[in-house]
Amino acid sequence: MDAAEPILLKADELGRIEIIERGGVRIVRRDITAARGWARPVACRAAAREARALIGLAGIDGVPTLLAWDGRELLRSYIIGAPMQQAQPRHRSYYRDALRLLARLHRRGIVHNDLAKEPNWLVRADGSPALVDFQIAWTRGHRGRLFRLLAREDLRHLLKHKRTYCAAALSARQRAILETPAPHSRLWRATGKRLYKLIARRVFGYWDNEGKGRVRD
Ligand SMILES: Nc1ncnc2c1ncn2[C@@H]1O[C@H](COP(=O)(O)OP(=O)(O)O)[C@@H](O)[C@H]1O
Ligand SMILES: [Mg+2]
Questions:
Q1: All domains of the chain, ordered by start, with CATH?
Q2: SS3 labels along 175-209
């Protein structure tokens, strides 16, 4: 592999995300100039939200460091690891560390909101978890009921992955959380998801499952 060649991680209507090298160091670039038309402002807002979240999470191990955001490209540190659907973490220590990581996010008033997607969970070389993709994160601090509801959904999505790969380690309390999704999630499953799939097929010509990883919601 030529180290100077960007490695494409993903490309869609909202732009491209790739691994590049700057000064001999691997970093991840989200390029929103690759987004066109109506998608451009949407991609720009999403990247700005990711930048805000990464600033709020600075210093937390298991979250990329924001290196730059200029309204066109967002640069973040590269975390060595593989996405969950590839690495399939079966050890309970992964989930213990992932719970701690989530607690740290939430303590800073940030909710990830996109944790049903396996590709947003990384398994690092030492087997520990890391999170990427803060494009739809809640970044407005601890604000009452809605914040708590969304934070609990982050947790529930993690537990769904735990149920898939490490079910024997689920506690009784964790099983109870799995059995009670938030009202908006129930509503989404009943109606929104079908509507979204329809729109996704009509507009994009596909149903976005990020190509590979399963989505558990
Ligand atoms: N440091 C990394 N190491 C390995 N894979 C990564 C890394 N960063 C991102 N990826 C992979 O690239 C995918 C796309 O990045 P992401 O930030 O999720 O973009 P998008 O918002 O377009 O989903 C991720 O879901 C993940 O699987
Ligand atoms: Mg993603």
A1: 7-77 (3.30.200.20), 81-204 (1.10.510.10)
A2: HHHHCCCCHHHHHHHHHHHHHHHHHHHHHHCCCCC
